[in-house]
Amino acid sequence: MEKQAKRNILCLTLCVLVGMLTGMLFKNEVLWDFSHYHYYNAFAFLNDRAGLDVVPASVNTFYNPIIELPLYLYIKYFNDFPNILYALQGMWFGLFLFVLYKICRLFFEGAHKYLFSFLVLVVCTTGQATFGQIGTSANEIPVAFFILWGLYLLLKTVKDSETQNLKRFFLCGLIMGIGLGLKQTVVVYCVASGLTLIICWHYLKQPVKSIFFFALGGLAGYLIVNGYFMYKYWVLYSNPFFPFLNGMFHSPYFFDFNYKNDACVPSLTEFFIFPFLWHLKTYVVAGLERPYYNLPLTLYYVLPIVAFCVLACKKKLGAVYKQQRLQTMAYIFVFLSILIWMGLFGVGRYTVVIEAVGAIVLIDLFNYYHRKQHPIIFILHCIFILYFICCVCLPYGHVQKHIEMQEVRLPEDTLVKLYGMPTAFVIPLMAKEQSFKTVTYYPKCTLKNLPCINGKGSDFAEYGAFAEQRKKIEKEHKGPIVYIYDKDNLNIFQTKGQVQQEYEQNLKLCQRALHLGWIKDMNECLKEPLKKYLKNIEIAEIYVSYDDIVFNYACQELKNNLNPNLYICVPKDMQNKILGENDDK
Question: Which of 462, 480, 483, 458 minimizes the C-alpha distance to 471?
């Protein structure tokens, strides 16, 4: 027993070191999400910004910030040393590798157990979702660690029915519930685990009690991590899951519907063939996701279907179900996870656990062929793995700092107006010892031809209680105002006067063209300018507080390494004081 403990410690240490080295080497980061809410949420939680900022990260403002705290603290102390920071972030990947290795040891025995375990780690690591998120702030790998940890204990408990007890099932659920509390996207795997237990109830000594205690543990873990925020949101917004499930709780701070970002969910007609479609055309999530190219994910979808059909035809389904407990649970878990993932999200980043368990399913198939002495198939599988290593393992660029932005010295009692997403990250970078408030404006989803970035409901700060709160803050504010906006999001500083002037210029051009005989129809000439005029007038009505901003404000690029499209507009008489330079643009 002591020898096994030493081996576990050695293996854990090795995996963590590999994770740190990998994080430091590749320096991955999902910049949009980090800029939008990961960095801000941790800062807001530690500095109690709830009453100072009006939903600067839209719906994401209300995500659980606990999982964001480690990276926030790393940045606080190691921002000038990104290698240290990325190494610390890579520790999550090391823990992920360790628990995946422990699951492999449940599946593989004999002389080649270490080889097959290594192949699982390689196939999983080179998966699109896993490889692209090592060391990032996306947090899919940290929560995947909790899911795999709970799954490992669950498989270990089910493997030997003699050691089964209700405490173990509770513990499995507890660990998965903690992962769910940290990030709700892993609800896919929590539900898939529960359904797998129900389907495999013959493996349990006390099926009803075991499944109940598993679910009870999941609820307890979720409440441990998320209970405080549920209470806080109930007190503040009358909805413990705010802004989700508002069709049930009817908070005045959000719309009366159950918010869901379904931008990547396949249609009903595409649902069952979705894992094949991304090889035929590019699928991205609102321009923020990398295109799918994940061939293994398609294999993990196909393999359980093929296995079921083959075994059913050979009338071996019942025998395999009784004798191959772990393999049966793994195949069912992977297949259910893919179905639930497609139904709820369809977002490629969320498939880290599928890539992990799917790799075990795939290598277990290698193992089967190896035992049957099929060397050609085994060699082909090895070539397949090497292909992924060659295609994916490419180093990323070097960075000087993790986050960097020019200094902005705000006078006391400044109101910062943020326009669009992602802009929330500037708040912690400006809020050193400066006291200021912020309000954020979003494109209204009801406006024609305007992007609704995170789906219907992401613009809720434009309506209801938050809009009234923003209006009150602006009305009571007496100090200076600073504007920050993304120039590629909307041209928010096109005033109503400028819109009118642009239309009149087009009108004169059309009149001159008609006079010279270049056109015959005045209405046709003005069709597009009029359409643009009506849209821009509507935008200007929403976004611009007063027409003469271009005369009273100095606007220039806000230099930073997260969003190169940001511009800042400050009062001209305070330009040197706020920005420390006179660089009109």
Answer: 462
Q: Which of 571, 538, 351, 567 minimizes the C-alpha distance to 447?
A: 538
Asked if 148 contacts 99 with a C-beta cutoff of 8 angstroms, the reply is yes
Give me 138's structure tokens: 């996306």
**b/e map 536-553, b = 16+ CB within 10 Å:** bebbbebbbeeeebeeeb
CA 555 to chain CA centroid, Å, is: 32
Cβ contact 190:216 at 8 Å: no
**Nearest Cα residue to 152 out of 117, 104, 192, 186:** 104
Sheet holding 436-441, edge to edge: 53-54, 436-441, 414-419, 481-486, 566-571, 553-557
**Element at 244 (helix H, strand E):** none
Contacts of 273 (CB under 8 A, 6+ apart): none
Per residue, the 3-state secondary structure of 58-111, as one string, reads: HHHHHCCCHHHHHHHHHHHHHCCCHHHHHHHHHHHHHHHHHHHHHHHHHHCCCC
Whether 327 and 162 have beta carbons less than 8 Å apart is answered as no
Instruction: Please report, for the chain, the start and end positions of each structural domain, with discontinuous segments joined by +.
Output: 2-392, 405-493+544-585, 495-541
Q: Which residue has the tokens 């659980």?
A: 64
Q: CA 363, 368, 370, 375 torsion: positive or negative? A: negative
For residue 311, the SS3 value is helix
Distance of CA 93 to the CA centre of its chain: 17
Q: What is the dihedral of CA 12, 15, 21, 22, to 10 degrees?
A: -140
Please name the residues in contact with 500: beta carbons below 8 A apart, sequence gap of 6 or more. Answer: 533, 537
pTM of the model: 0.84
Answer whether 517's CB lies under 8 Å from 451's CB. no
The per-residue pLDDT string of the chain (585 residues; one tens digit each, 9 = 90 and over) reads 678 888 889 999 999 999 999 999 888 876 788 999 999 999 999 999 988 899 999 999 999 999 999 999 999 999 999 899 999 999 999 999 999 999 999 999 877 888 889 989 988 998 888 988 999 999 999 999 999 999 999 999 998 878 899 999 999 999 999 999 999 999 999 999 999 999 999 999 999 999 999 999 999 999 999 999 999 999 999 999 999 999 999 999 998 888 887 778 888 888 998 888 876 655 544 334 455 666 788 889 998 998 899 889 988 888 888 888 999 999 999 999 999 999 999 888 899 999 999 999 988 887 776 666 555 556 656 655 555 555 444 433 444 677 889 999 998 889 999 987 889 999 999 877 677 899 988 876 655 444 555 667 778 887 889 989 998 998 899 999 998 987 765 555 556 666 777 888 888 888 888 888 888 888 888 888 887 777 666 655 555 544 456 568 888 899 998 888 888 989 988 998 888 764 444
Q: Is 562 helix (H, G, I), strand (E, B) or coil?
A: coil
Beta pairing class for 414-419 and 436-441? parallel
User: Which DSSP letter does residue 234 get?
Assistant: H
Q: How would you write 366-394 as a 3-class SS string?
A: HHHHHHCCCHHHHHHHHHHHHHHHHHHCC
